[in-house]
Amino acid sequence: MKNIVITGGAGFIGSHVVRLLVNKYPEYKIVNLDLLTYAGNLENIIDIKESQNYKFIKGDICDEEFITKIFNDEKITDVIHLAAESHVDRSITDPLSFVKTNIFGTVTLLNSAVNAWKDELDKHIFYHVSTDEVYGSLAEDGFFLETTPYDPQSPYSASKASSDHFVRAWANTYGLQVKISNCSNNYGPNQFPEKLLPLMINNIKNNKLLPVYGKGENIRDWLYVVDHARAIDDIFHKGEVGETYNVGGFNEWKNIDIVNHLCEIMDDKLDRTPGESAKLITFVKDRAGHDHRYAIDASKIQKELGWEPSLQFEEGMRKTVDWYLENEDWLGHVTSGQYKSYYKIQYNQE
Ligand code: NAD
Ligand code: DAU
């Protein structure tokens, strides 16, 4: 019997992790703890909201008194920690929010876990979900390994790197049993349209310009979000305590190529003339300190835990586009209000 608190379970990746665990482990209690910031949305997990083994609690991971109460009231046995500020562009304009949530929030959770579990630390797992961005930026060759030295370059990645260090420090100093994973770029249903692919899907649909930063030559390694959720399940259940696992899609794309490919899929889905959507592509001012390339070597999780991506990229992209086209209400809700002012400031356009 486990009572697992999943933080950030109303966000993009967290909602897929919550769904997977609620459906796969009816004997567990899954507590979804989320502050419902602009990125958190209960519509992401509406399908499991009535499940017997599921409970949503709204709250802030930075609030120690509240977190301590959750550990006690819900008899939390394990943590899977995803709550974070997650968008690099926002970290450039508002770094302190990232320091607060990603560092202070993580340390608050670590403290509460050690206090709640101090008499039997060996019976509990604190699993921290992190990013490949902690390793910095690659040139054209090479891959990030679990042993690659940390070299974060943005306020977002520096805050995530810092949180990883705190997690390891709590293992070393207090004996907390921790696991960490560092994953590459996720794509799929429910991603907030500030990130590259859903932003482009929304803009193509609405015939708006497609803002590609710089020359579009930066490279990312894309993984379907459900495959990341499967990796998190495998690491939580089968991963070694104290170990780090890199998770990636073996799937590198230059930004301009992935946007062009998306345009082709959208032309097809929207019955447009081939090439019509790509005419919307516009090169805009580059992101400050833009990391050139991320690429994960995921052979450790493949060899040790038998995980690998289940979906081919082409299928994943088509499923993603279909989801956004079929979920107009979801897209309408998240792009109303605050999103409009964010978009205007970030892209200098309506
Ligand atoms: P997201 O921005 O979609 O969701 C973050 C969630 O955290 C939201 O539901 C938000 O309401 C919640 N949250 C924020 N501050 C909180 C607080 N103080 N207390 C409680 N909840 C709070 O993020 P995502 O893309 O789903 O990423 C989830 C995690 O995975 C993050 O830790 C991120 O660093 C990591 N990650 C993301 C990617 C990616 O491609 N998106 C890749 C690798 C790792
Ligand atoms: O690598 C994992 C990381 O991937 C996660 O830790 C982050 O939470 C997640 O946001 C993502 O970070 P990126 O910065 O790589 O993702 P984003 O979708 O913001 O951008 C992908 C690439 O596309 C990047 O090179 C910047 C570029 N881009 C992005 C946007 C939003 C554009 O060219 N135009 C845009 O409008």
Oligomer: single chain
Major β-sheet strand ordering? 3-2-1-4-5-6-10
Morphology call? globular
Helical amount = 40-55%
Average pLDDT confidence is 97
The CATH architecture classification of the domain at 3-187 and 223-247 is 3-Layer(aba) Sandwich
The secondary structure category is alpha/beta
CATH homologous superfamily identity of the domain at 3-187 and 223-247: NAD(P)-binding Rossmann-like Domain
Which CATH class of the domain at 3-187 and 223-247? Alpha Beta
Low-confidence stretches: none
Give me the number of helical elements.
12
Report on the architecture of this protein.
This protein has a domain at 3-187 and 223-247: Rossmann fold, CATH 3.40.50. The chain has twelve helices and twelve strands. It has helices at 12-24, 64-73, 88-93, 95-117, 155-174, 196-205, 225-238, 255-269, 299-305, 313-326, 328-334, 338-347, and strands spanning 3-7, 29-34, 54-58, 78-81, 125-131, 178-183, 185-187, 210-213, 219-224, 244-247, 252-254, 281-284. The strands form three sheets. It has a seven-stranded parallel beta sheet, with helices on both faces. Helix 4 (95-117) runs parallel beside helix 5 (155-174). The protein is globular, with a radius of gyration of 20 Å. Nicotinamide-adenine-dinucleotide binds at residues 7-8, 10-14, 34-37, 39-40, 60-62, 82-84, 86, 101, 105, 129, 131, 160, 183, 185-186, 192.
